[in-house]
Amino acid sequence: MTKILLVEDDESIVSSLSEYLSMEGFAIKNVSGQKAAIEMIKKELFDIVLLDISLKDGNGFSVCSSIKAQLDIPVIFLTASGDEGSIVAGFELGADDYVPKPFRPRELVSRIKNALRKYQNTGNEVKIDNVYVDMDKARVTKKGEELNLSALEYKLLVMFIMNRGKLLSRNQILEEIWDIAGDFVNDNTLTVYIKRLREKIEDDPKHPTIIKTIRGLGYRLD
């Protein structure tokens, strides 16, 4: 099911739009402000973001910039602001579409589906800080240089990406990961592989910012 994050502080729009999009088969979550939106995209993976420009504690431009710096997903602006400057600013930040209020729900659904199709046709790439992962080609680059990851290191990285924002216990990881010979990885070996992966993708492996250790619980990729 396609997951949509709706960033909107008008309760009437949130209520009516959430109901309509749910009936169309989408899974909807809503936040009303800039800070909450940025925190939400760190915690959960969404397929598309519907974003108002005018927010109570900031603006949609900052949210769009944060999204595009971390994720390769479409962003559609929903706004009453129709001036050319706002439209241009949104597109320059990477927005994929711009729908002025009031809008027709059926037209919005069409625009959502169109934006999603474009991303489905451009490959499966993920950006994490200055690391790019092309999961269609199993290719990982950092600052333009390709990283030489082992098969198990790559499996670990993809597992973290597919569970981005979620805490993964060591047991959860061990249940899913096995080495190139098909043998299960033991706890000590997992520690070694995570260390090696960090040495390749982190700027400072001793103080990791990509794969974080949650003491006593496991690991998390933000």
Which SSEs are present, and which pair or pack?
Elements: E1 3-7, H1 11-23, E2 27-31, H2 34-43, E3 48-52, E4 54-55, E5 58-59, H3 60-70, E6 75-79, H4 84-92, E7 97-100, H5 105-120, E8 125-128, E9 131-134, E10 139-142, E11 145-146, H6 151-162, E12 167-168, H7 170-176, H8 187-201, E13 211-214, E14 218-221
Parallel strand pairs: 1-2, 1-3, 3-6, 6-7
Antiparallel strand pairs: 4-5, 8-9, 9-10, 10-11, 12-14, 13-14
Helix pairs in contact: 2-3, 6-8
GO molecular function: phosphorelay response regulator activity; transcription cis-regulatory region binding
Pfam family, one: Response_reg
InterPro entries: CheY-like_superfamily, OmpR/PhoB-type_DNA-bd, Sig_transdc_resp-reg_receiver, WalR-like, WH-like_DNA-bd_sf
